[in-house]
Design a protein that fits this description.
Blueprint (H helix, E strand, L loop, with lengths): L2 E4 L9 E7 L6 E2 L4 E6 L4 E5 L4 E4 L8 E3 L3 E6 L17 H5 L2 E5 L9 E2 L5 E2 L1 H9 L18 H12 L32 H9 L9 H16 L2 E9 L1 H17 L6 H12 L9 E3 L2 E3 L6 E3 L1 E3 L2 E3 L2 E2 L7 H17 L12 E5 L18 E15 L2 E15 L5 H16 L1 H4 L1
Parallel strand pairs: 15-19, 19-20
Antiparallel strand pairs: 1-8, 2-4, 2-7, 3-6, 4-5, 5-9, 6-8, 10-11, 12-21, 13-14, 15-18, 16-17, 20-21
Helix pairs in contact: 2-3, 7-9
């Protein structure tokens, strides 16, 4: 009997998914464990592996169309089996069985680092392979600049630029004028300008590059666009003194070193403080569900991170029950998993509150877009010494801007203001709370 390949369930609340791309074509011979297609959910993109070895047939070629979990999308015929029309689906298909054949390709979200060999032996990241496939580029023609000749997305992008108008690009060593900072030139500076306006338009167009959204970028774009369309945002900003927080972090760093825990960062401290005070502000930890408010017993804090230009939000589960060493360890684990692309969809969704810290990039303050269906997100700016009044004197103190974005459907201004007041009190006196 042929082996059924179904759309697997990769997350607890997943009901449908989309096939983002097929890695095989009708009639290809695959081995068990080969990547055969990519599945997209509202949180991540995963690679699905072949559950058996044989010839793959009856492929459902539609991509980007929502498909119910458990739906057969192909069949694998074992050696000696005659190919026929698609068999009837098995009576008791187990999504969990197929889900066990998953390996992550991309996380919400959000860019690729792990190199996977193609059938030709080339090593290329999933994003590189996808970009090449979308643009009809043969990876054999692309020189890889990564470890062991790995082809990255940047390598494919560079090859596409050269392919777009090769006659207008010459070597940087060529003895002609009009050179650019990157060593490429379009034509001799002394050459006559083209008379044809269409040629001018083409030359201008060759200066740009159109890159389709990656699956992760589509997820992020759709979710945040939905948030701005449906959630009436309002914003409250507080300037908070960080002297006590800085002192506490210095003391905690020594303690964590003694017990073998990672050095705590300001983001970890803010998450720890927020997790404690969110218990007293359940509406800030709530989410929108239709025309109702869902209050969560547990505090699950998402931490916005960047990976190769994409937004990823790993979640600190049950953050309210963690002490500082435990939270520092979990934060380090999530950050490493994010970089290595080993996080599962369950680790990238289901948060009840989100923190986005851009202070390390020198950003003074900003407003963040709420991650639906959550009701609020906290944006953190950099800490900088400022003159402030203390005891009738002007003194320098480290100050940071915190901006809370709230969904006015479930959060009122007074509720958000009370949360911000408690956040200020907690960060200016963190040892009392922790």
């Amino acid at each position: 009997m042929p082996v059924e390949v179904i759309l697997p369930k990769v997350d607890m609340d997943m009901e449908t998914g989309t096939i983002e791309a097929w890695h095989v074509k009708e009639g290809d011979v695959v081995r068990q464990g080969d990547t055969i297609f990519e599945i997209g959910t509202n949180k991540a993109v995963m690679e699905v592996e072949a559950p058996a070895s044989g010839a793959i047939r009856n492929i459902k070629l539609e991509t980007g169309v929502p498909i119910a979990v458990g739906t057969p999308v192909a069949w694998i015929y074992l050696d000696g089996e005659a190919a026929s029309a698609a068999p009837e689906p098995a009576a008791a298909a187990a999504p969990e069985t197929a889900a066990a054949a998953l390996s992550q390709a991309e996380a919400p979200a959000a860019p690729a680092t792990a190199a996977l060999p193609t059938k030709s032996g080339l090593r290329a990241t999933p994003l590189a392979r996808r970009l090449a496939r979308q643009n009809g580029l043969d990876l054999k023609t692309v020189p890889g600049t990564g470890p062991r000749g790995r082809i990255s997305e940047k390598d494919v992008s560079a090859a596409l630029i050269l392919r777009s108008d090769p006659q207008d690009r010459v070597s940087k060593d060529a003895p002609v004028g009009g050179s650019r900072a990157n060593g490429t030139i379009l034509r001799d500076a002394g050459a006559a300008a083209p008379q044809d306006e269409g040629l001018k338009a083409r030359d201008q167009h060759s200066e740009s590059r159109l890159q389709p959204f990656s699956a992760i970028r589509r997820i992020v774009a759709n979710r945040l666009s939905e948030s701005m369309r449906t959630a009436p945002h309002f914003y409250l900003t507080s300037e908070i003194e960080m002297s006590a927080a800085r002192d506490l972090l210095r003391r905690l760093a020594a303690r964590h070193e003694r017990i073998g825990a990672p050095k705590p960062s300001i983001t970890v401290l803010i998450a720890r403080v927020a997790a404690r005070i969110l218990r007293d502000h359940p509406v800030i930890n709530a989410s929108v569900e239709g025309e109702a408010t869902r209050f969560h017993e547990r505090v699950d804090i998402g931490i916005a991170m960047e990976r190769d230009g994409d937004l990823v939000v790993p979640v600190l589960r049950d953050a309210g029950s963690m002490d500082m060493p435990a939270m520092a360890r979990e934060f380090a684990r999530l950050r490493e998993g994010m970089a290595k692309r080993t996080l599962t969809p369950a680790e990238l969704g289901g948060g009840t509150f989100t923190i986005s810290n851009l202070g390390m990039y020198g950003v003074d303050s900003f407003t963040a877009i709420i991650n639906p269906p959550q009701g609020a997100i906290l944006a953190v700016g950099r800490t900088v010494d400022k003159p402030v009044g203390r005891g009738g004197e002007i003194v320098l103190r480290p100050m940071a801007n915190f901006t809370l974005s709230s969904d006015h459907r479930i959060v009122d201004g007074v509720a958000a203001a009370r949360f911000m007041a408690d956040l200020r009190e907690a960060l200016e006196n963190p040892e009392v709370l922790l």
